[in-house]
Design goal:
Number of strands: 10
Distance between the termini: 54 Å
CATH topology of the largest domain: TIM Barrel
Structural class: alpha/beta
Shape: globular
Largest sheet: 8 strands, parallel, barrel
Strand content: 5-15%
CATH class of the largest domain: Alpha Beta
Strand order of the largest sheet: 3-4-5-6-7-8-9-10
CATH architecture of the largest domain: Alpha-Beta Barrel
Helix content: 40-55%
Number of domains: 2
CATH superfamily of the largest domain: Radical SAM ThiC family, central domain
Length: about 425
């Protein structure tokens, strides 16, 4: 039985128990959320070293880190190092998006090394194999695509991105729209080329029941991909994007009816004033299925700092009800991220996720900030570091300038407001 099937049979699985303890919630709440489709627990039965993670309504907003080789750079060692950095920085899940080297060996090594859920986009490998075998992505067969999906599933991948909503109808909307940036989804581009060249419907849509059977066997969660996501603010919330979302809403229901967990991917590039509406639209169309967004990126001109543009959008999206943030790194739009880019991307998205959790009233979120405020008042620097999202950096920054006297930091020195007011009010001295 899948997590969804167990939940609907009123069975609380070990994974649900684990998630409940991690979230500080009652296990029955988790079971009911999984049964309703508002919570997913990506947990492939073949991923034996997994620490289960819950994503969805009422839970802390989770953060995903994308790693993987490109056609220009990367191997098993580089990606395992990125995985280590991502987990160390606090990523809740990791996606391997490798497109070069021994893709299968890289994926298997990442799964074996990761306690966090692992996601992939199987069409990448299918398309690359089609180039090697047939000379072009568009010559990929339906069986080629499903063979790649099956390989990923059997290897232990916990969730897969599949662009099932990139249909002929969505492509027609795209043609009519006249976008500035057309399509920025790599998986979406592969499928658009295939559909147009072969004059056939998207095989992931046409053979969706086949996909569901494969996922159900190993309890793999579907991440229904947004192949039509906007890659420019000028293209945000347009007909092609909405057309795809409407199809995905139907596919979420079909997945749940088949006992397969499903979450929904979203944009992309969005101006600030459209983020909340996009979240509400997804929640309505997809009946509360967990929402997973890339950023969203709120301005197109932040090259080199897109971990910041993504964190701004991510905080607003999380506060509005988004459940899962895909990080954006400083390298976005410019190059393949290195380990330091990965670290910065994870931390930026974790800040955004936590800010959203405070607004949503997630259990324990505001208390964490209150504890930090108490430590600051007491000038307890070690406790401040312990409570920080990035303890190592907190200690590094605090210690980089020598403090000549007192307990304050070098920002205010002997004119620390908290020390001065404590003296005026006659409150107790700090612990350290």
């Amino acid at each position: 039985m899948t997590q969804l099937e167990m939940a609907r049979a009123n069975i609380i699985s070990p994974q649900m128990e684990f998630v409940a303890q991690r979230e500080g919630l009652d296990a029955e709440y988790i079971r009911q959320g999984v049964a309703d489709g508002t919570i997913v627990i990506p947990a492939n039965i073949k991923h034996t070293n997994l620490s289960p993670c819950g994503i969805g309504k009422g839970l802390a907003t989770k953060v995903n880190a994308n790693i993987g080789t490109s056609s220009d750079f990367g191997d098993i060692n580089t990606e395992l190092e990125k995985l280590r950095v991502a987990i160390e920085a606090g990523a809740d899940a990791v996606m391997d998006l490798s497109t070069s080297g021994d893709i299968s060996a890289i994926r298997r090594a990442i799964i074996a090394a990761s306690p966090a859920p692992i996601g992939t986009v199987p069409i990448y490998q299918a398309g690359i194999k089609a180039i090697d075998t047939h000379g072009a992505i568009v010559k990929m067969t339906v069986d080629d695509l499903f063979a790649s999906i099956e390989e990923h599933i059997r290897d232990g991948v916990d969730f897969i991105t599949v662009h099932c909503g990139v249909t002929s109808g969505a492509i027609a909307r795209l043609r009519q729209q006249g976008r500035v940036a057309d399509v920025v989804s790599r998986g979406g581009a592969f499928l658009i080329g295939w559909i147009i060249h072969n004059e056939s419907e998207n095989p992931l849509y046409e053979h969706y029941d086949r996909l569901l059977e494969m996922c159900r066997e190993f309890d793999v969660t579907l991440s229904l991909g947004d192949g039509m996501r906007p890659g420019s603010l000028a293209d945000a919330t347009d007909r092609a994007q909405v057309e795809e979302l409407l199809v995905i809403g139907e596919l979420v229901e079909r997945a749940q009816q088949a006992g397969v967990q499903a979450m929904v991917e979203g944009p992309g590039h969005l101006p600030l004033n459209q983020i909340e509406a996009n979240v509400q639209m997804e929640k309505s169309v997809c009946k509360g299925a967990p929402f997973y967004v890339l950023g969203p990126i709120v301005t197109d001109v932040g090259a080199g700092y897109d971990h910041i543009t993504g964190a701004i959008g991510g905080a607003i999206a999380a506060a509005a009800g988004t459940d899962f943030l895909c990080y954006v790194t400083p390298a976005e739009h410019l190059s393949l991220p290195d380990p330091e880019d990965v670290r910065q991307g994870v931390i930026a998205s974790r800040i955004a996720a936590h800010a959203g959790d405070i607004a949503k009233g997630v259990k324990g979120a505001l208390q964490w900030d209150r504890d930090m405020s108490v430590a600051r008042k007491e000038l307890d620097w070690e406790e401040q570091a312990r409570l920080a999202l990035d303890p190592e950096r907190s200690r590094l920054v605090h210690n980089k300038q020598h403090v000549t006297a007192g307990s304050a930091c070098s920002m205010c020195g002997k004119y620390c407001a908290m020390e001065l007011v404590r003296e005026y009010l006659g409150t107790p001295a700090p612990k350290c």
